[in-house]
Design a protein that fits this description.
Largest sheet: 6 strands, mixed
Mean pLDDT: 97
Number of strands: 19
Helix content: 10-25%
Low-confidence stretches: none
Structural class: alpha+beta
Radius of gyration: 21 Å
């Protein structure tokens, strides 16, 4: 293993389970245990648990915390109640995406937790510090002090409330959280996830996270790697930073304008998004369903029937749940309408497809 790779607090437990390990976002992470298909189906049908301790936790507090978070975040934190979570993005002034993230409104006034992508922790933290001039805030990157697991699937509530002993989490609705103190230490339990299913994410000290992981293993909850985390989020239409959102792909281009509150007085990148909404964008992210079983992959060209290249695949799989070949693609806006016929070039051949809604899979979960 590369000596420069970091290890999460669960690393040795993954190795004991003979997980296939691989570098991801600077960490040595489990890609799969029993296999991507088996783990994917466990989350769709029962429950699985993921090590997501590589994610970043940045706490922002101080007299200007609300105004600062609202300044760097596309969504509007002003109406948030304690215990509420919002999804949104941080943008560069030209509308390109710094990162997508979750903002947690804590119980104490002017206290927020920002959960950022693992590969972007250092970049995001430095960027936040750069933007903080003139704001009376404390920006505290505590990423190394927290471990995190995600318990996902129709039986996630049973696993979290029963097996792990957090009955107070049962009433949580989607995108809310609570503080569940254990052994005199803070444990954050949120009803969130990245799979399209019901689920919880639990933040705690590394030794506590190890305990929870071992309890779930003893109860027979399926350990899941990052391989099926990607297939699950993709089927549910969720973006991955670096693929569907980048410094060159704005939320408007990615179809995520609903998370950008353009009626807010201001936020970094607002003027660029207002212009994009008014004038249109050159490219849009779409879903494509292929008629064939061929598997589209990141970087494959998207073409018209005459061979003209009009876009590129950002993520693609043969869907495990839907048993269809599907992909996200960034295409010229002229060809982004639902029902537009497009072709994906896979090596020397092209395969016909049609533009469809990006949320390929819809769960029946309601909470």
């Amino acid at each position: 293993m590369d000596n420069l790779l970091k290890m999460t607090c669960l690393h040795d437990l993954h190795v004991e389970l003979h997980a296939k390990m691989s570098p991801f976002a600077g960490y040595d992470m489990p890609i799969q245990y029993s296999g991507i298909i088996d783990e994917h189906n466990a989350v769709r049908q029962a429950a699985g648990v993921f090590d997501v301790s590589h994610m970043g936790e940045v706490f922002i507090s101080g007299p200007d915390a609300e105004s600062f978070v609202n300044h760097i975040f596309t969504n509007d934190v002003r109406p948030m109640a304690p215990g509420q979570i919002l999804y949104g993005m941080m943008l560069y002034s030209d509308g390109g995406t710094v990162d997508d993230l979750l903002v947690y409104r804590e119980r104490e006034p002017q206290h927020y937790l920002l959960v950022v992508n693992a590969a972007n922790i250092d970049k995001d933290y430095a960027w936040m510090l750069e933007q903080s001039e003139g704001f009376d805030v404390k920006i505290d990157n505590q990423s190394d002090a927290w471990g995190q697991i995600a318990v996902q699937g129709p039986e996630a509530e049973k696993a979290v409330c029963g097996t792990l002993g957090f009955p107070e989490a049962a009433p949580l609705t989607f995108y809310t959280f609570l503080d569940a103190e254990r052994d005199g230490r803070r444990v954050i339990v949120s009803r969130t996830g990245y799979t399209g299913e019901d689920g919880f994410e639990i933040y705690a000290a590394p030794d506590q996270i190890r305990q929870y992981w071992q309890q779930l293993m003893a109860a027979g909850v399926k350990p899941c790697g990052l391989g099926c985390r990607d297939t699950l989020r993709f089927e549910a239409g969720m973006p991955l930073y670096g693929d569907e959102l980048t410094a060159d792909i704005s939320p408007i281009m990615a179809g995520l304008g609903m998370f950008c509150k353009l009626d807010k007085p201001e936020f970094i990148g607002k003027e660029a998004l207002v212009a994009q909404k008014a004038e249109g964008v050159s490219h849009k992210l779409v879903g494509i369903e292929l008629a064939d079983k061929a598997v589209p992959r990141h970087g494959y060209p998207v073409e018209l029937e005459d061979g003209k290249e009009v876009g590129v695949v950002t993520t693609g799989y043969h869907s495990i749940t839907l048993e269809k070949s599907i992909c996200f693609a960034l295409v010229d806006s002229a060809y982004a309408a639902l029902g537009t016929p497009l072709r994906v070039r896979i090596r020397k051949n092209t395969f016909p497809g049609v533009v469809v809604k990006k949320r390929f899979y819809q769960t029946n979960y309601k909470k």
